[in-house]
Amino acid sequence: MDTLLLGLNEIGHLNVLMAIVIGALIGVTIGSIPGLEPAGVMAILLPLSFSMDPLAGVSLLLGVYGGAWYGGAIPAILMNTPGTPVAVLTTYDGYPMAKRGEGKRALSIAYTSSFVGGIISVCSLVLLAPTLSQVARMFGSAEFAMLAALGMIFVVLAHRNHVVEAAMMLGFGIFLGTVGLDRSYSVQVFTFDHSWLLGGIPLVPAVIGLFAMSQAFVLLSQRGNDAQKTTLEGSGMFGGFIELVRHKMTVIRSAVLGVVMGLLPGVGEFGSQFFSYTLAQKFSKTPEQFGNGAPEGIIASETSNNAVTASVMVPLLAFGIPTDALMAMLLAVFMVHNYIPGPTLFVERPEFISGLYLSLFLMNIVVFLYLTFATRWIVNLTRIRGRFIGAFILVLGFIGSYSQNYRFSDAMIALGFAIFGYMLRRANIPAVPIILGLVLGPVFLTRFRQAMGVAEGDLSIFVTRPISLTLFLMIVASMGFYIWGLLRKKV
């Protein structure tokens, strides 16, 4: 109870409440505009969050993150164009319902499913993060090295059809993480005597370039990409809860899958979405309706998507290991304010943890109420010209990358990553492994070196400790299943 009161006191500050509301509204706006992604906007806001109080900065980014998944359903249902990549399956049943004149009903189902999934996800964070943080107390250098390696392996294997490309990008990210001054031996690594590289490749300009500015280039290169006009037909924006009660097993199954998938690095929304949709169709009494306007399809897609949004934070808070690029941005906010994720954070900053939980609950409520009453105006965002948005993002990207340290070199690094990210998008090569390699690579190398020092160079330290051995076997098993799947396809 005392911790809860401390959390209420934390979110009771005006700056935190404003950050929650503004972040949520920005997220919904971004999700409602086809072609934009929350990662790019979060990257632009990242330097701003550094100047805010820790909880306010994190709440701003989480508001954008969570709100975008809600808003992505609007163009998916009304225009057959997913506002965010993870809303792709929402188009399968949402758009046919809109064509039948049931647009409001479909949106109501999507909003309510997202809300229930989001609340369940926050509850899972509240329950799992403290428990796993206690497990993390038993971790040494060997365990953290294996955990970082497991995260990187999962990220690569999650890109099923682009595993080789993802592995190459991960390796490139790990290489970038070695650039700078090696403090263990006080030697320069791949700096080529340039002083601006002594601190390594900065994360913020890299993220802004890869996700925000590269997307701006994509929007600027498109022609005739104005969104089509949308209409909002039908009646009833509050009937979604009734629909969820009718299909409660689909809700429960999709929410559980979303929570579990959120814990696995690199899987997240995409994996949970496809699993949930497939199972919903399999267990449905009317599977033939899927793809033709089945409410269960929308429920499965939107519930599982939003059930990931908070559970994906469990590995970050408990172990300090980000599972995707968005969590890597949050880790940057933590580190700037000297809040080190892990077991000690729950002991030293219980008021921050409680405030974080409450801000996530409040964010879901704000987004749900806002969408319920303001959808008729939000749909107008789908008509904004893509090239105008691209130019605006490009300017903000330069400002954001420069403003962190007021160094021109950071802006040039962002531009370099933007060009490279644009090339990756055109070639359909994933960019997320680069950021996770940049973040997790140094963690793995540092912890591996520490473990080797403790064991005096004996590699058996990774298989003689129970937790480290378990993580190592998970790595071997995941790679084994992938290779087995490849062999089955060839047979």
UniProtKB/TrEMBL annotation:
Spans through the membrane: 12-33, 109-129, 135-156, 163-181, 201-220, 316-340, 352-372, 384-402, 431-448, 468-487
UniProt protein name: Tricarboxylate transport membrane protein TctA
Keyword list, A-Z: Membrane, Transmembrane, Transmembrane helix
Domain DUF112: 17-436
Superkingdom per UniProt: Bacteria
A UniProt-annotated Pfam family: TctA
